[in-house]
Amino acid sequence: MSRVIGVVSIKGGVGKTTTAVNLATVLANDFHKKVLLVDANYYAPNLNFHLGILDPINTLNDVFQNKIKIFDAVYKHNLNFHFIASSLISRKVDPMKLRNQIKSIRSFYEVIILDSSPSLNEEMLSVMLSSDELVVLTTPDYATLSTTLKAVRVAKQKNIPINGLILNKVRKHKCELSLADIEQATGVHVLGVLPDEAKTIDAQHSLTPISQYHPNAEISVEYKKIAATLINEKYDDTRFLSNLKSIFSKKVEKHEINRELFKTRRFLKK
Prior knowledge:
Radius of gyration: 18 Å
Oligomer: single chain
Number of helices: 12
CATH architecture: 3-Layer(aba) Sandwich
CATH superfamily: P-loop containing nucleotide triphosphate hydrolases
Order of helices and strands: EHEHHEEHEHEHEHEHHHHH
CATH class: Alpha Beta
């Protein structure tokens, strides 16, 4: 059974597309899954730029206009996953079109990741309606939290399960909202905490996902732990310093506990 995971956020700049790309990369390379990554940001597509494809020939826009079949819009990336790019669409798109197209292709993949628009519009609605489950990107500030609350509320109204929040660009400053504050406000558990690392900018400049550019970076390992949680598999952090630290520290972070609880609940549902 394939799973369709929507990556959503109602604010630009929180790292939604970067996260979608890295999850696809990790799932394909570290967990050997058949993965399809789809740019569902119709009015301001940018997934192709993250992947080094400046002018894709066949896009989701062409599929929606019935110029090509969806299989003709699928590209194979050299990092072992497939992706569908979008091109600028100047008209409104029926939110059901994406859902129907995903239905026709989902049996060929184990995981399909949909990268949503950063706006509460037809694009995000189409991703929500096409997804089996969602992850919501947020950052530890009040402005982003307010938009995160809207995304969570809409998902709950549509009865679409939210796997959890991914907290990005964390610097551990005193002015940042705490994980507990964010969970209390949203009513959703945090499954991952991604540090704000300078290496991420270097990776984007090289058009390489950080999980491949610097696989042992803290953010890369966190992506792997999040991915493992989403597919209910185990990931062992083999880094020496990380293991040494765990020996002398009894503290277990809240998001790590959330991941284990998430896996347990999913296992019990089977």
